[in-house]
Amino acid sequence: MTESRIIRAAAAQIAPDLHEASKTLARVLDAIDNAAAQGAEIIVFPETFVPYYPYFSFITPAMTAGAAHLKLYDQAVVVPSPLTHTVGERARLRGIVVVLGVNERDRGTLYNTQLVFDSSGELVLKRRKITPTYHERMIWGQGDGAGLKVVETAVGLVGALACWEHYNPLARYSLMTQHEEIHCSQFPGSLVGPIFAEQMDVTIRHHALESGCFVINATGWLTEEQINELTSDPALQKGLRGGCNTAIISPEGRHLVPPLTEGEGILVADLDMALITKRKRMMDSVGHYARPELLSLRLDATPARYVVTRDDGAETGGDRNAECTVSPAADH
Question: Are 73 and 105 spatial neighbours (Cβ–Cβ below 8 Å)?
Fold first, then answer.
C-alpha cells in the first residue's frame, strides 16, 4: 500500500481593502497566522488579492476607468519588494506554504501574478496569467509559458492557475505532465453571480479528477459596503454578488469540507496524499492513460523577450520574467 502522508491545507475567503495595499497585506498576515494556528501547512488566497481584484473594470466603461486604473498602478506590488519580503518572512515564521495572488507592477505594465512562497520563506514561483479574461485585458498584460511550471515545496509538488486559465485544457495539461500533487486555483469571487460559482465548482472538481491531484481553491469576498462604494447602480451591483466558491477538493473530485459560498472565512482540511495513487492507479492522464503517439502538447517555456541583440554573433535579450525565483530577503 502507498504510504499515507497527511497535509493540512487552508483556503482563505476574505475581503481586501479597496484603498491601501498595506491594509490588505495586514489581512493576509492575519489569515496566515490563523491558518497556521489550526495546523495548516499551506494556505491559498484569492486571485490578485493584493491590493485587490480590479472589480471596477467589470462595471466601468473604459473611458471613465482611467483614475481607478492609475490608482491600481499606485497600489500594485513590485516583485521583489518589502511587501513580498514581509509575506515570505511570515511564511517562514509560521512554517507554511503561501500562495498569494497579486497585481504585479513591472514598470509600465500590470500583470495578474501568482506567488508561491515555500515554508522557508523563499519565493519559489512567480507566474503571470497567460491570457487575461474579457474586461481584464484592459488592465493586465499577458504572461508567458515560463510560468507554466510545478514547483517542489515543503508540502509536495505545487502548481497554480488563475481563474479562466482553467478553461484552457492545454495550460492545465502542462501542469499535469509535471505531476502536480496540489493544485492551487484562484478566482476573484463576488463577480458575475451564482452561475460563476456553479461553473467554478465543475471546473475545479474536473481538474482534480483529470489530474489526480488535490485542488485548493480560493475566491474573494466583497462586503455590501464595498459593493455600494464601487457602484450605486442596483443593476451593476448584481454583477458584484455571488461567484464565491472557496473549496478543497480530493483527487476523487469530492469536497473535503463544505464549500464557502458566502461571507468571510478560512476552510481547513486534511489531504491524504495516498489518494493520489489511488486515483492514478485507475486513470493517470500523463501515464498509462495517455497516448503520446497520438496526442501530445508542445509547450514553449521560454521567457518572453522584447528585444534580441546580436553582438559579434552572440545573442542577448531582455527577459521580462527574469526574477521568477528570488529570495524574499533580497529587497530592491
Answer: yes
* pTM exceeding the 0.85 threshold for the entire prediction: yes
Number of H helices, E strands in the chain: 9, 13
The CATH number that domain 6-319 falls under is 3.60.110.10
The one-letter amino acid code at 56 reads F
User: Which residues neighbour 302 within 8 Å (Cβ) at sequence distance 6 or greater?
Assistant: 144, 145, 146
Residue whose C-alpha cell reads 519588494 in the numeric block: 81
- Asked whether the bond before 292 is cis by omega within 30 degrees of 0, the reply is no
**What is the Cα 86 distance to its own chain's centre?**
19
- Residue 277 and residue 265: Cα distance in Å, rounded? 31
Is 324 exposed, middle or buried (CB count within 10 Å of its CB: 0-12, 13-18, 19+)? Answer: middle
What positions carry a catalytic annotation?
47, 129, 163
Residue type, 230: L
Q: Can you say whether residue 263 is alpha, beta or left, with left for phi > 0 and alpha for psi between -120 and 50 degrees? A: left
Three-point CA angle 35, 76, 228, nearest 5°: 75
CB 87, CB 98: distance < 8 Å: yes
Distance CA 45, CA 185 (A): 9
Give the C-alpha separation, 118 to 12, whole Å: 17
Tens of pLDDT, residues 205-236: 999 999 999 999 999 999 999 999 999 999 99
